Amino acid sequence: MSRFVDRVVIHVAAGDGGNGVASVHREKFKPLGGPDGGNGGKGGDVVLVVDSQVHTLLDFHFRPHASAGNGKGGQGGNRDGANGQDLELRVPDGTVVLTPDGELVADLVGEGTRLIAAQGGRGGLGNAALASKARKAPGFALLGEPGEAHDLVLELKSVADVGLLGFPSAGKSSLISVLSAAKPKIADYPFTTLVPNLGVITGGETTFTMADVPGLIPGAAEGKGLGLDFLRHIERCAVLVHVVDCATYEPNRDPLSDIDALEAELAEYTPSLADDLSERPRVVVLNKVDIPEARELAELVRPEIEARGLPVFEVSTASREGLRELTFALARIVEEYRASRPKAEATRIVLRPRAVDDAGFTVVEDPQAPGGFIVRGERPERWIRQTDFSNDEAVGYLADRLARLGVEEVLVKMGAQPGCQVSIGDLVFDWEPTTPAGIAMTMTGRGTDARLEQNNRVGASERLAAKKARRLPGVYDEYEDDDE
Ligand SMILES: Nc1nc2c(ncn2[C@@H]2O[C@H](COP(=O)(O)OP(=O)(O)OP(=O)(O)O)[C@@H](O)[C@H]2O)c(=O)[nH]1
Ligand SMILES: [Mg+2]
């Protein structure tokens, strides 16, 4: 079977966020001038943009990987890193975006409609931005977050620019196979083609698609043969091409009566279509002229078809005669048709794949680790990614954030024991309670990181949290992180 170019799987990778930097301002006679580490830049997004000049998904077929630029790291002197470059991918109007599991992400309609297919990672905050009253000179910064990366399926509903019509064995599949890279099944028994094949053809500057449908027979419009379902596939075609077998030996069949018979089917079928097919340009291809009798017949009927105002092309898919002229003629008609179509509205909608649930978190028992727990949630998982685990202070900051969100409290409620295994995102660690919710607190001041030194010193925010916890158990979620 042929390759379906109207359905492609693409791999989109947004840029990573740049790391924040920990830096201290230095001046003569002012050795510790305060933190001045800048923030990392945001990673670039991969964005799908509807462009009415694009008609196929062919480019993605050849280049399925797309990645946007990374954000630059922050620098000292409060210099923020540059944002990564967005990558815009131009897609045809009517492109449907799905997850690999077939879940609909978006239906991209209208010039300029945009979908952020992969969101760039946030840049990490530098130590200047992390400074607060309680933490005057942070000796750490946050890491940039990795950009989103995943596979998406693109599908294009408007099947083809050119639709082939013809009796079984007229040579429709053969024609597509010689004009394009599609490799449909070809055989000399009728109804070889069971599903529509799509081929992509280039004629000069124009790229267009051609749909091969199963052979039609009289009565198709009432469901005879295989044709009815497939008539639908030619509904949106710019050009209809009659492929006529000039070498058939069946009685009562000749090129003219074949065309008439199929036109009658189309007329019959048309009322059920949104668009009227009778106005659609038509071309007649007289096939198999490599056979001498067929060429004679073709030359005989050509004037009569031309008299009906239809362009005629004598071709042979076997000897490849006449194909070039046909390709260029089709390209021209397709161009004219496209130019005559009303432009799609510029809707400029920006769509995001899914709403970001930024609020809470859940804790479940870890089925893999007896006595262990898994913490899930957009924020805790992000915080893990932002943490530089080689920096003790950064780890302490993470612990603060998790405690303020109420993670520890929930762990305690669920019966977590000190030393049990806790997983958050990619991080697996042995849990040591650090907050009032976890252990009886010894109240002390706060210097560098307390918990790593195991001396249980507590900061102002934790004291506040402890107070709140005593008064209003279970409302830690209200705490907003100070950097968001
Ligand atoms: N001699 C000759 N044979 C051809 C030519 N084009 C197609 N054929 C033969 O005609 C037979 C039918 O060709 P297909 O391309 O499968 O015809 P189709 O119109 O797709 O048929 P269905 O799928 O059944 O509707 C095959 O045996 C082809 O080899 C041609 O230009 N010359
Ligand atoms: Mg076929």
UniProtKB/TrEMBL annotation:
<dbReference type="InterPro" id="IPR027417">
    <property type="entry name" value="P-loop_NTPase"/>
</dbReference>
<dbReference type="InterPro" id="IPR014100">
    <property type="entry name" value="GTP-bd_Obg/CgtA"/>
</dbReference>
<dbReference type="Pfam" id="PF01018">
    <property type="entry name" value="GTP1_OBG"/>
</dbReference>
<dbReference type="InterPro" id="IPR045086">
    <property type="entry name" value="OBG_GTPase"/>
</dbReference>
<dbReference type="InterPro" id="IPR015349">
    <property type="entry name" value="OCT_dom"/>
</dbReference>
<keyword id="KW-0547">Nucleotide-binding</keyword>
<feature type="domain" description="Obg">
    <location>
        <begin position="2"/>
        <end position="159"/>
    </location>
</feature>
<dbReference type="GO" id="GO:0003924">
    <property type="term" value="F:GTPase activity"/>
</dbReference>
<feature type="binding site">
    <location>
        <begin position="287"/>
        <end position="290"/>
    </location>
    <ligand>
        <name>GTP</name>
    </ligand>
</feature>
<feature type="binding site">
    <location>
        <begin position="316"/>
        <end position="318"/>
    </location>
    <ligand>
        <name>GTP</name>
    </ligand>
</feature>
<feature type="binding site">
    <location>
        <begin position="166"/>
        <end position="173"/>
    </location>
    <ligand>
        <name>GTP</name>
    </ligand>
</feature>
<keyword id="KW-0460">Magnesium</keyword>
<feature type="binding site">
    <location>
        <begin position="191"/>
        <end position="195"/>
    </location>
    <ligand>
        <name>GTP</name>
    </ligand>
</feature>
<dbReference type="GO" id="GO:0005737">
    <property type="term" value="C:cytoplasm"/>
</dbReference>
<feature type="binding site">
    <location>
        <position position="173"/>
    </location>
    <ligand>
        <name>Mg(2+)</name>
    </ligand>
</feature>
<comment type="subunit">
    <text>Monomer.</text>
</comment>
<feature type="compositionally biased region" description="Gly residues">
    <location>
        <begin position="70"/>
        <end position="79"/>
    </location>
</feature>
<keyword id="KW-0479">Metal-binding</keyword>
<dbReference type="InterPro" id="IPR006073">
    <property type="entry name" value="GTP-bd"/>
</dbReference>
<feature type="region of interest" description="Disordered">
    <location>
        <begin position="65"/>
        <end position="86"/>
    </location>
</feature>
<dbReference type="InterPro" id="IPR006169">
    <property type="entry name" value="GTP1_OBG_dom"/>
</dbReference>
<dbReference type="Pfam" id="PF09269">
    <property type="entry name" value="DUF1967"/>
</dbReference>
<feature type="binding site">
    <location>
        <position position="193"/>
    </location>
    <ligand>
        <name>Mg(2+)</name>
    </ligand>
</feature>
<dbReference type="InterPro" id="IPR031167">
    <property type="entry name" value="G_OBG"/>
</dbReference>
<feature type="domain" description="OBG-type G">
    <location>
        <begin position="160"/>
        <end position="335"/>
    </location>
</feature>
<comment type="function">
    <text>An essential GTPase which binds GTP, GDP and possibly (p)ppGpp with moderate affinity, with high nucleotide exchange rates and a fairly low GTP hydrolysis rate. Plays a role in control of the cell cycle, stress response, ribosome biogenesis and in those bacteria that undergo differentiation, in morphogenesis control.</text>
</comment>
<dbReference type="GO" id="GO:0000287">
    <property type="term" value="F:magnesium ion binding"/>
</dbReference>
<dbReference type="GO" id="GO:0005525">
    <property type="term" value="F:GTP binding"/>
</dbReference>
<feature type="binding site">
    <location>
        <begin position="212"/>
        <end position="215"/>
    </location>
    <ligand>
        <name>GTP</name>
    </ligand>
</feature>
<feature type="domain" description="OCT">
    <location>
        <begin position="353"/>
        <end position="433"/>
    </location>
</feature>
<dbReference type="InterPro" id="IPR006074">
    <property type="entry name" value="GTP1-OBG_CS"/>
</dbReference>
<keyword id="KW-0963">Cytoplasm</keyword>
<keyword id="KW-0378">Hydrolase</keyword>
<dbReference type="InterPro" id="IPR036346">
    <property type="entry name" value="GTP-bd_prot_GTP1/OBG_C_sf"/>
</dbReference>
<protein>
    <recommendedName>
        <fullName>GTPase Obg</fullName>
        <ecNumber>3.6.5.-</ecNumber>
    </recommendedName>
</protein>
<comment type="similarity">
    <text>Belongs to the TRAFAC class OBG-HflX-like GTPase superfamily. OBG GTPase family.</text>
</comment>
<keyword id="KW-0342">GTP-binding</keyword>
<dbReference type="Pfam" id="PF01926">
    <property type="entry name" value="MMR_HSR1"/>
</dbReference>
<dbReference type="InterPro" id="IPR036726">
    <property type="entry name" value="GTP1_OBG_dom_sf"/>
</dbReference>
<dbReference type="GO" id="GO:0042254">
    <property type="term" value="P:ribosome biogenesis"/>
</dbReference>
